Amino acid sequence: MLWAGRMRLGTFGIFLALVRAATACEFGAVPYSITGIVCRMTKPAMLMLNQKTAQVIQVAFRNARFPNITGERSMRLLGRVAYGLHNIQVNDLSVEQSEVQFKENSVIHIAIRNVTAAFRGTLTYGYAGAWFLQLFHSVDFEIKSSTDLQINVKLTCQRDRVAADGSDCYLVFHKLTLHLQGDKEPGWLKQLFTDFISFPLKLVLRREVCNEVNFLAQMVADFVHDLAANFVQDEDIKLDISLASVPLIKANYVESHHKGLVLYKNYSDVLTDSVFSPSLLTESRMLYFWLSEHTLNSLASVAFLDKRLVLTIDGEKLQALFETEDTEAQRKAVQMIFQGTSYNDSVAKVWSLTHPQISLRPEGTVVKSLVAVEVSIFPAGEEPLTVLYMEKEITVTIQAAYVEKKLVFHPLDSSIEFKVFKCTADPSGDDLSVRNFLQTMISAVGIPEVISRVESALTSLMNSKGLHLFEIGNPEIITRKGYIIVQLDFGFPNHLFLDLQKQL
């Protein structure tokens, strides 16, 4: 277990202070300029999460390891009375109420009201007279307590990630009552040891519980960081979510700023001109994510480098593309391209020749890319034949939404400009009917088909990270010049809290 070294609190505290000093983060004069991703959590979200705080505090009490408490007092007539509390354990723990407040200087204040607990163990005692020491007696005891717990969690930066310092912690005792085994011991003895052990017991409880709270605060911060890091990583592509500045706490929200640089093999990513400002986000929703245009462009670039922007279409999907309408132009184009070969013996390959360029504007996300399309047929008993090859520059404006746990892209308008066009049935390129048909077909069904495939792939990726397990309310995806905002309300999924409890 991790609790063994917590007895040497003085040494541990000095060591921790040195480590924090050595790992403190340094930021430039204008930290927002390197900010690619921002997460803002408002007070309603913290109040919702506060419902789980009581359970975390219970874990802190149960996980605390209480040392034996020994002492000696001089008593008239009895001489010196030595005592010891051993094998102290927590039972019957309950929390009545917890509250959370945001404070300036990056502090979250948590007030836990009326924490009741029973501490059980063994009491040993004996009398040391002038000439001899009597044999020690031993009796089981139970101490019933009622306390308030006050914690000021300061969010700082260590090793470029959010660190939670919960060392500003104290307990206020309202009740501390000692019960000896069966209460068969004399009443004066019970009162005697209540007076003896009250002060040292309070000191030990404060020290051990607050030490455990501080440990758990950082563990929760690490848990959230690792959860976020896993969410923004897929195989060799991941986002750098190290901090770009110290976490910001205002009266109604807490906000963290992250670099949002793309990490992929030898890919080099630098951001120095971010347009982020806290004034770009509001406080009416529970959770906000701000993403820079630079971050999305970098993701598109590495997706291209990782050869992910490739699509094959065959069989019924291919047939659906070429037979959306039954016209003379359509029949002529199909005959010229496929030369009587069935769709089941044909395949179309679509891929990006260059990395897509993404521009974020109020009307939507504008994607511009040079795309190649190649159609091949596989006649029975013959070699495969490429019957169509074309390169075209496509620009499409998209509005994004998250509906019924699915990412949805709505294409608003598009433009297509042919750069290269080669058709086996028309080597000279004089017959414009095929090209005109293809341009109409690509606009009407080709682009929507590609977008649908991207929707499905991204939804599956996000669901593999557990996004569908969250209860997300009224999500909105808003584009502005140079950035995108995702704002939503949410419910904390129980499985994540169970995962956290396993680590605690």
Automatic annotation (TrEMBL):
Residues 1-24 form the signal peptide. GO terms for biological process: cholesterol homeostasis; cholesterol metabolic process; high-density lipoprotein particle remodeling; low-density lipoprotein particle remodeling; phosphatidylcholine metabolic process; phospholipid homeostasis; reverse cholesterol transport; triglyceride homeostasis. GO terms for molecular function: cholesterol binding; cholesterol transfer activity; phosphatidylcholine binding; phospholipid transporter activity; triglyceride binding. It is found in: Secreted. GO terms for cellular component: high-density lipoprotein particle. Disulfide bonds join 169-210. It catalyses: 1,2,3-tri-(9Z-octadecenoyl)-glycerol(in) = 1,2,3-tri-(9Z-octadecenoyl)-glycerol(out); cholesteryl (9Z,12Z)-octadecadienoate(in) = cholesteryl (9Z,12Z)-octadecadienoate(out); cholesteryl (9Z-octadecenoate)(in) = cholesteryl (9Z-octadecenoate)(out). Residues 281-488 form the Lipid-binding serum glycoprotein C-terminal domain. Residues 40-267 form the Lipid-binding serum glycoprotein N-terminal domain. Keywords: Cholesterol metabolism, Disulfide bond, Glycoprotein, Lipid metabolism, Lipid transport, Secreted, Signal, Steroid metabolism, Sterol metabolism, Transport. Belongs to the BPI/LBP/Plunc superfamily. BPI/LBP family. Involved in the transfer of neutral lipids, including cholesteryl ester and triglyceride, among lipoprotein particles. Allows the net movement of cholesteryl ester from high density lipoproteins/HDL to triglyceride-rich very low density lipoproteins/VLDL, and the equimolar transport of triglyceride from VLDL to HDL. Regulates the reverse cholesterol transport, by which excess cholesterol is removed from peripheral tissues and returned to the liver for elimination. PANTHER family: CHOLESTERYL ESTER TRANSFER PROTEIN. This is Cholesteryl ester transfer protein. It comes from Apaloderma vittatum (Bar-tailed trogon). The lineage of its organism: Eukaryota, Metazoa, Chordata, Craniata, Vertebrata.
